[in-house]
Amino acid sequence: MSTWEQLAQLPIDVEGYDLLPLAENVSSGFLRQTTIVRLQGGGHEGLGEDVVYDGVDHDAFQAAGAVHELTSARTLGEFTQLIAGLDLFPTKTPERDVSRLYRRWSFDSAALDLALRQAGMGLEDAVGRRSESLAFVVSLRLGEPPTLEPLMERLAIDPTIQFKLDPTNEWDPELIAQLAATGAVESVDFKALYSGTTVDQVGGVELYQRVVGALPNAWIEDPGLEVQGVDEFLTPHRDRITWDANIHSIADIEALPFKPSMVNVKPSRVGGLRSLMETYDYCNEAGIRMYGGGQFELGIGRDQAQLLASVFHANGPNDLAPTGWNAAAPVGPLLSSPLRLSPAATGLRLA
Description:
This protein is an alpha/beta fold. The chain contains 13 helices and ten strands. The chain has helices spanning 3-8, 55-64, 76-84, 99-119, 123-127, 149-157, 173-182, 205-214, 230-234, 250-254, 267-270, 273-286, 300-312, and strands at 16-27, 30-41, 44-50, 138-140, 163-165, 185-189, 219-221, 241-243, 262-264, 289-291.
């Protein structure tokens, strides 16, 4: 029986839902907004978090309120099918197409949480897998101009911590040599698949040569294979290449230019619960390692992402560090990797 089949027949009783806004100033000029979807039924509630990045989409979502009739489903599978057929942006088109997947996940994750709580069971029992200690990396940019200081501040708190770094054209050979000497770089994210964002990075083959050669054990995430010379240079390193921003489905994995060693399976970006569980099973059967990442959650979404990672891919370079590591000036002590989580006895949540 597939993982999805184990979950799909869970009974669910939805009597209604509401939306709870969250907001936090996370950097100068950036107000992060998310929306908690709260399903109610049978004296229980199930929670999910909409991690759409554009505040205007949250404003419209919250202003519209609970406009959908969700009480007809009798199983979790039926509920997710109902959600898949709804326009979850009824009053405005989302700023980004991927936001439809994010919002769908907020309803599906809330439904899984509610169904598990109504059944009196946790995720582990529902899928027949045990949670393991969660390995994580700290995702970090080194500033402009880049310096070793942000990394060294965190190593002073925990000398064993590992990092996922975003190389930029400003990384010179001296800085790269200093990074290599720390032994703390587990992954380098070239972010070549982003367009029109604040983290876009267009690096020539010279950047790849400087970084990949100096960090021979680091994973290489989202390289720009279409950049002249990059694909040829990286061919001997394909077993180190991982994919993140372009992974929304099994079809995306199968469309990659070669079978990957590892992919980032973000629940909110895959979207639906069925798609997520089928992707987990597909990767396991194909021998493709997985890791997960966060979406700047402000509420339960972070716990849910960590819990899913601990059950399905605990040993990858999961970009799911406890929030204290991501502070502008982190203060110790902070929890180390691997992180032992405490799954709640019921629901898709931590205790």
